Amino acid sequence: MASNQSSLHEGKFSIPSQNLDQQATLELGENDFDYSKRSQWLRAAVLGATDGLVSTAALMLGVGAVKQDIKNMIITGFAGLVAGACSMAIGEFVSVYSQLDIEVAQAKRVKKKKVDGGGERKEGEEEEEEEEKEGMPNPVQAAAASALAFSVGAMVPLLAASFIKDYRVRLGAVVAAVSLALVMFGCLGAALGKAPSTRAAIRVLVGGWLAMAITYGLTKLIGSSGLQ
């Protein structure tokens, strides 16, 4: 009698695990999106654009602190754009390639362990391996994204200063244009990653202001000491 009750209880309340997996997959597909999949290219793009904005603007303001000629500011900004884009691309390529090497080595160790264990390949295991390969980081893509984003960001202060001859107005235009762009990039990155946009924008903006102010102030101090 007890065994019959136990069987009835199990038959009434147990749910096949396969149905649970299918239901979870269906719910994830309908309601959720894994925004962490965007982290690789999003991080590279936001970092590149922010760095391009801040570093190029800081260089131009630093030169502008001691040299009021517009030509000096533009040449400095352009040199910063080219050098920074190359540096970001190389750095991102090396970093992501190192990450790729680690993940490939780990995948080989797992595969070798399965082969040495003599276990049979389960159904769908090959598809999982293909998905893992597709999900691995792409060094070339990350490098290109960083260089492009840096160049786009660096163009903002360059364009803001290119057509303004008055020295003070030019400096103000650079700071205003960079500030607006920093807020926009901060909000864009937060929106794509479904993160709070206000905090992201403020964090990026304050950091950019500090970088520009420190560069301008220290260069002005050195320039006023007689080193021209």
From TrEMBL:
Membrane-spanning ranges: 41-66, 73-91, 142-164, 171-194, 200-219
InterPro entries: Ccc1_fam
Family as reported in the entry's similarity comment: Belongs to the CCC1 family.
Name of protein: Vacuolar iron transporter
Main location: membrane
Organism of origin: Actinidia chinensis var. chinensis (Chinese soft-hair kiwi)
GO annotation, biological process: intracellular manganese ion homeostasis
Superkingdom, taxonomy of origin: Eukaryota
Job of this protein: Vacuolar Fe(2+) uptake transporter.
Catalytic reaction annotation: Fe(2+)(in) = Fe(2+)(out)
Comp. bias intervals (Basic and acidic residues): 115-124
Keywords carried by this UniProt record: Ion transport, Iron, Iron transport, Membrane, Transmembrane, Transmembrane helix, Transport, Vacuole
Gene Ontology, cellular component aspect: vacuolar membrane
A GO term, aspect molecular function: iron ion sequestering activity
Region called Disordered, residue ranges: 113-138
Subcellular location as annotated: Vacuole membrane
Recorded topology in the membrane: Multi-pass membrane protein
